[in-house]
Amino acid sequence: MNKNRTKNLRFPPIRFEKIDCCLCKDSNVETILKIPSYKKGHTYKQQISIGVCQQCGLVFINKRMSIKNYQFFYKKEYYHYYETAKNIDSNQRKKKEKDIEETIYKFIEPKIRIKNDKYKIMDIGCGTGEALGVLRKKIPEAYCVGIEESLIASEITKKNYRIKVINEDFMDIDLKDDNFDLITCMGILEHVFNPIDFLNKIWTSLKKNGILLIQSPNILDINPEIALPKVFKMVHTYYYSSKTIEKILNKTKFRITDKKLFSHKQIKSKSHIQGRILLLAIKNDVEVKNTSFPYEEISHAISKFIKMSRRRFFRGKIANLFHIKTLSRSITNRLKTTAAMEKKAK
């Protein structure tokens, strides 16, 4: 972020809150990691605390900034990421569209049933609009609308695809009940402040038997080559496994019809940090009863990744992936001690 721009901004004081599990309301949360999480130039330099609910296995930031702080952070710092999207050429865009066609659209196509010319699609967090562009191309008779808080990304979507974009927070928009046939939510659920409230609003906005498509990172499929701050970020308030995301959908009266897991090795991305969960769910009339799930499975898997990541860092294999500032105090002290010993040896 531009330094002059930062100086002119008045950042509200950071207020923290400790939260219970939103899924089962349990307060028995095991903290498995505390780590600073920010990028160079960020004004908000927060240490995040990652916890696992010992009742249901949901992973989330259990001590986080207030919603006011988060909203300010997104608008003033995070959304400037889209500045680089202005320079993406048509070939890069077409490559992204092709990937969406081969994965996302291929996954949902069998479930799309168009009975009339009033088929309505909404993409929450549409970004620069590639997914909406593909859906418009494949279903030309459908009415498409995007929800995107970033003004830059919204303008790119309008320019490239001529699709209506509402430049607001989804939770603040007044939407009609039973209005949409298909709602897509890709790479968004891990960012929301309360996934239960978020999904309840989606449920209300869908028509009877309406379809919800969700794509989210998989906390149980992490690339072992990746450093901790690349996975555990301040902007990701929740970290889902396929089991916990299914539980949340069941609780909010969605019936899951299809599921597909993409390994991080399959994802066509330079970073390929985590695998992906793809889920299709239909608006249901009743809450689906959840089955028990031992939280230890998730806790053990994450703890194992943390140990592997730290060991690899000390071997020097991923030292270039993140700054010393992002390490915990104990690791920093260890590095300083090692450096002092090497200097003395010389």
Structure report:
The structure is a single chain. With 346 residues, the chain is of the alpha/beta class. The chain has a domain at 91-293: Vaccinia Virus protein VP39 (Rossmann fold, 3-Layer(aba) Sandwich), CATH 3.40.50. It has helices spanning 3-8, 67-76, 90-108, 130-138, 151-161, 195-205, 228-231, 242-251, 295-314, 329-345, and strands at 16-18, 29-37, 46-53, 59-65, 120-124, 143-147, 164-166, 180-186, 206-222, 238-239, 254-262, 274-283. It has a seven-stranded mixed β-sheet with strand order 7-6-5-8-9-12-11, sandwiched between helices. Helix 6 (195-205) links the parallel strand 8 (180-186) and strand 9. It is globular. InterPro entries: SAM-dependent_MTases_sf. Pfam families: Methyltransf_23 (PF13489).
CATH class of the domain at 91-293: Alpha Beta
Mind telling me the C-alpha Rg?
Answer: 21 Å
List the helices and strands in order: HEEEEHHEHEHEEHEHEHEEHH
* Number of helices in the DSSP assignment: 10
Percent helix, as a range, is: 25-40%
Q: What is the CATH homology-level superfamily of the domain at 91-293?
A: Vaccinia Virus protein VP39
Beta-strand content estimate: 15-25%
Structural class: alpha/beta
Largest sheet: 7 strands, mixed
Low-confidence stretches: 1-8, 315-338
Describe the strand arrangement of the main beta sheet, using strand numbers. Answer: 7-6-5-8-9-12-11
The count of strands amounts to 12
Distance, first to last CA: 40 Å
Shape: globular
Quote the CATH topology of the domain at 91-293.
Rossmann fold
Second CATH tier, the architecture of the domain at 91-293 = 3-Layer(aba) Sandwich
Indicate the mean pLDDT: 82
Protein name: Methyltransferase type 11 domain-containing protein
Pfam family, one: Methyltransf_23
InterPro entries: SAM-dependent_MTases_sf
Organism: marine sediment metagenome
